[in-house]
Amino acid sequence: MKYDLVVVGGGPAGLAAAIEAKKNGVDSILVIERAKELGGILQQCIHNGFGLHEFKEELTGPEYAQRFIEQLKEQNIEYKLDTMVLEVSPEKIVQAINSEDGYMIIQAKAVVLTMGCRERTRGAIAIPGDRPAGVFTAGAAQRYINMEGFMVGKRVVILGSGDIGLIMARRLTLEGAKVLAVAELMPFSGGLMRNIVQCLEDYDIPLYLSHTVIDIIGKDRVEKVIIAKVDENKKPIPGTEIEYECDTLLLSVGLIPENDISRATGIEMDRRTNGPVVNELMETNIPGIFAAGNVVHVHDLVDFVSGESRKAGAAAARYIKNEIQNGEYINLKNGNGIVYTVPQKVRVENIEKSLEVFMRVNRIFKEVKLEVRAGDEILLSTKKNHMAPGEMERILISKKKLEALNGKDIIFEIVEGKQIISCDSYDSCTIVPVGGDK
Asked: How far apart are CA 227 and CA 239, in angstroms?
């Protein structure tokens, strides 16, 4: 089999990339999806809040996915479901298998990797205690309730305050369960502020920051969960235990970009994002292999996934048509308070009007100044009232400014303001100046 473009993954990222590549003149496209339906995780996200940036209206996850599925079909883009990609070689040879076609070897001119991400499990974080039934990842519980029609429990404790966990706190409450508490190891939530308000505060569900589960008790089914406060080294503090009688524990303890294929291909990885290192075109270090969406870094809004993936799809089309310019790379680096930047390196020649940079901070900041500089030159300085790890930041830098850098590295940094060091709750936090100690 031969295709100009193979897209690995049929979720929101893969759909957007394939559609954009088709709009940019690539006719021979194959989308490969391992699930039985297109749309990825969105199919189980029946709550609204999607599409505000992309479609200027509020949609549910399945509605958002359906918009792109319909576009894919209108463009007559070929796709294979229930198909597992086994390997992608640096030469863009894709090996895949399914029950209908059997083992396939597909030669592509370009590949876009859009495999999304997976949840951390109990084993990944080593929670002590018994091993009864009733311990679920938040995403698994979401699928059981929203797609399979099974209720996972009646009295629930949630560990981790990522967006999926927060949304499931509300979902379980609406289905008649009692959510007793949400415990978060970090001194800040990993979710969006709007989800903390709409999913916890609106339903009087307590959020315990700097707390974790220290024991699970139960023979056949979960009977009790014990949480405790942790110190600055994330170690439980004796005497702070809180015991809950419950039948279910949900884990919302982080997402991991799905990059087994990327690593096997030899793609350079960024240990900060657990995703590929990409350039201004979302291209990896292997020419012609692109990556976009949650496989690169975990996004908080699917609208940003779609926008980033369109960029990868258009760039893949440029690669196929041999329209990409080679030039010297400028490196993007994170300074004080910044966890990572995406992309990690850029060539000015391939930027049209401005460079879009996504980043996350490493703690909660209040009334701060974010500075972007190259050497002594300040490219951008902006004030932010609130920055948090659960909320991705987006910065635009004009091409004109980049052209004047002469190859200097760009540094993103929090230079002044206040930072939150520790919290028991959102009403009780230790706040110090940026750069100060507790």
From this structure: 11
